[in-house]
Backbone:
C-alpha cells in the first residue's frame, strides 16, 4: 500500500516539474519576437533542468521523485536584424531578437504536455486501484 502512495508522490512531483517546464516554454514563445537595442538586453531562452530525488525512507531506490534543479539561460547569441525604422533600433539601425526556434519550443511544449497528461493518467489509475483495494477490504 505504501508503494501506491509513493506512486502518488512521484506523479505529483512530475506534474509540478512539467508545469514549470510548460510555463518556461510559454515564456520563451511569448518573448520569441521581442526586440532589444543591443545583444546584452535581448531575451535569452530558458530551459528547465530536472533532477531525480531518491526517497530516503526507501533506500532500495524503488521510489523517486522529480524536482526542478534549476532554470538555465541559453548562451546562443541573439540575431541582429537591420530594421532602421524600428523604435528600438540602435544608431546603426539594428535590433536584436532572441535565438529562439519556435518549432523547437512547440515540440518541447508538446512533450511537456504529454508527460503531464501521462502523470495525470498514472494518478487516476492509482486512485482507482486504491479504491478497488478498499472495496475488497469492505466485502
Residues:
Amino acid at each position: 500500500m505504501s508503494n501506491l502512495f509513493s506512486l502518488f508522490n512521484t506523479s505529483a512531483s512530475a506534474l509540478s516539474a512539467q508545469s514549470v517546464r510548460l510555463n518556461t516554454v510559454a515564456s520563451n514563445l511569448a518573448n520569441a519576437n521581442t526586440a532589444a537595442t543591443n545583444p546584452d538586453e535581448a531575451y535569452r531562452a530558458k530551459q528547465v533542468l530536472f533532477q531525480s530525488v531518491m526517497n530516503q525512507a526507501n533506500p532500495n531506490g524503488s521510489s523517486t521523485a522529480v524536482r526542478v534543479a534549476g532554470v538555465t539561460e541559453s548562451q546562443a547569441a541573439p540575431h541582429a536584424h537591420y530594421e532602421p525604422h524600428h523604435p528600438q533600433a540602435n544608431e546603426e539601425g539594428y535590433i536584436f531578437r532572441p535565438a529562439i526556434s519556435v518549432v523547437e519550443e512547440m515540440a518541447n511544449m508538446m512533450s511537456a504536455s504529454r508527460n503531464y497528461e501521462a502523470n495525470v493518467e498514472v494518478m487516476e489509475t492509482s486512485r482507482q486501484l486504491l479504491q478497488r483495494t478498499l472495496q475488497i477490504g469492505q466485502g
